[in-house]
Amino acid sequence: MSLSLRIAPHLPYLRRFARAVTGSQTSGDAYVSAVLEALIADVDLFPEASNDRIALYKVFIALFDRLNVEIDQQQDSFGWEKRAASNLAHIAPAPRQAFLLEAVEGFSAKEAAEVMDIDDAAFTALIDEATRDISDQMRTEILIIEDEPLIAMDIEQLVEGLGHSVTGIARTRDEALDLFRKSPPKMVLADIQLADGSSGIDAVKDMLADVALPVIFITAFPERLLTGERPEPAFLVTKPFNPDMLKALISQALFFETQAKQLA
Amino acid sequence: MSSKPETKNEPVAAPPGRQDDALGPNSAIGKKLRALYDDVMSEEVPDRFMDLLGRLEDAEKSSGSQQPEDADGTSQDKED
C-alpha cells in the first residue's frame, strides 16, 4: 500500500493532536502540513514503527521539537480551548506532548513512549511532570458555602486533599458575602438552602456581579437551580455527593473555566 | 531497494479500554479534554491535505521507481 494511503486514515487524529498541542486548529494544521511536506521531500523519513499511526506521530514529534513552537491562542479557538491552551502552555513541551498523547490521543504509555522515542521510565517521568505542573497551576483558594457542619467538613477535607486552600466556610448568604469580600476566592462551592432560610444562589449571584469565577452548587434540591435563572458559569452536584465526582468536577471547572494568568 | 517493508497496517482508533489512572488526579482533566477535542474533531480532511497526500503519492512513485537517471522529477509513470 502506498504511503499516502497508509497515512490518510490517521490524518484526522494527527490534526486533533496538533490542535491540542499547539492551542489552535490553524497552527496545528500548519504543523500537519509541514509533516506532509517533509515526507514529500523525503519519503524515507517515514520511520519503521509498531504501526502506521505511531510512525506518523513520530514524524510530527520530531518536526515539532525541531521547530520549537510556542503555544498559540488564536481567534479561531473556542472559549474552552483558549483556556485549556493557556493552561497547557504552562507545561513544558515534552511533558505536554506526553500528557496529550495519553489523555487525548489514547495511546498507551508504551505506544506514546515509542512516539516520543524515549524509554518507558522517561515517559513516566514526563507524565509525572505534566501532572505536577497541572496540579500546581490549578492550586487555588476556594470558598465553601454550606450550613451543615459535617458536610462542610467533608468538603473542606476533599478540597484540601486536592491541594487547594479554603478561604472560609459560610453558613448564610450574609456570611458568604462577608467572607467573599474579606478574602476573595477563585472558586465557590455552594449549598443552595442555607441555615437562616437564605439562598446560596442569591449569594453566588451577588458575587458574580463583581467577578467571574467558577461555581459548583452542591445541593439536595437541584430543581431550585433549574427553575430560577441559573448563574453562569455554574456546575451542579447533587447531595449526597460522590467525592470522586466532586473532585473531578472541581479540577475540570478550574482547568476549563479559568485562565492560568487569572490564577497566578 | 528503497521500497519500505509494509508495517502492520491496522486502522488505529483511540483504544477504548485504556487506564486513566496513570494521569493520577488529573485524569478528570484528561477525560474532559478528550471529550472536547473529540467533539470538534472532523473526520473530513480539508482539500489542501488531500492535495498534499496526492503529491506524496507522486513523490513516492518517483522515488520508488529507482530510475538511475537525473533526479529531474520527470516521471512518466502516471497511472491514474
3D architecture notes:
The complex is a heterodimer of chains A (264) and B (80). Chain A has 264 residues and is an alpha/beta fold. In chain A, 59% of the residues lie in helices and 9% in strands. Chain A has 14 helices and 5 strands. Chain A has helices at 3-7, 11-22, 25-41, 52-67, 79-88, 93-103, 109-116, 120-138, 149-161, 173-182, 200-210, 223-227, 243-257, 260-263; strands spanning 141-145, 165-170, 187-190, 215-219, 234-238. Chain A has a 5-stranded parallel sheet with strand order 2-1-3-4-5, with helices on both faces. In chain A, strand 4 (215-219), helix 12 and strand 5 (234-238) form a beta-alpha-beta unit. In chain A, helix 6 crosses helix 8 and helix 10 packs parallel to helix 11. The longest helix of chain A has 19 residues, at 120-138. The relative contact order of chain A is 0.09. Chain B has 80 residues and is mainly alpha-helical. Chain B has a domain at 23-64. Chain B contains 2 helices and no strands. Chain B has helices at 27-40, 47-64. The interface between A and B is large, with 63 and 50 residues.
Q: Which key terms come to mind for this protein?
A:
heterodimer; A: 264 residues; alpha/beta; five-stranded parallel beta sheet; B: 80 residues; mainly alpha
